[in-house]
Amino acid sequence: MKINPVAVRQCLKSFDFKTLFYEHLGWDRHQAHLDIYVDGNTVSLSAIAQKRGFVAFVCRSMPDRPTRLKIDHQVTKSVREHFVIYTDKPSGQQIWHWVRREPGRPLASRDHRFDVSQSGDPLIQRLERIAVSIEEEETLTLPDMTSRGREAFDVDKITKKFYD
After folding, report:
1. How far apart, in whole angstroms, are the C-alpha atoms of residue 34 and residue 161?
2. pTM as predicted
3. Cα(24)–Cα(18) distance, rounded to whole angstroms?
4. Antiparallel, parallel or unpaired: β 82-88 and 54-59
5. pLDDT tens for residues 22-56?
6. Parts of the chain with a pLDDT under 50
7. Which H or E run includes 115?
8. Which contiguous run of DSSP H or E holds residue 50?
9. DSSP 25
10. Residue 136, CB-side half-sphere exposure with 13 Å CA sphere
């Protein structure tokens, strides 16, 4: 699905993920809350959108990479297919975190950073891959969304496509 990059960029820069997912990516509303306990601390995640069981969470803090991996491990117990958007609004930073899970292969964590001072074009191109049009809504499945997530966030797939 083709998205409006100007509108998507504005949503990213204003941290307006609900408008981004509902109006521009065609995802469904999802309101859930997870408190994840990591290293003696509680990290709160809010689910803001989902499409066929693939869930987008937002975390209003930016823990270090080892902590993000521990958080992902805990989230997977509740929702297998997901990504987490870690945010630090005062500094204008976001980390879109996704983990590749494939049978017989090790987990592969992918972080895609966004800063409000940037154009956001690389992230917008990734988001276009997970956008869903009304025409495809009826036949879309969780495996379809999982595949789209892999295409959007897996660096190996994108690099391979580039070289092909």
Report:
1. 35
2. 0.86
3. 9
4. parallel
5. 999 999 999 899 999 999 999 999 999 998 988 99
6. 157-164
7. strand 108-115
8. strand 41-51
9. S
10. 16
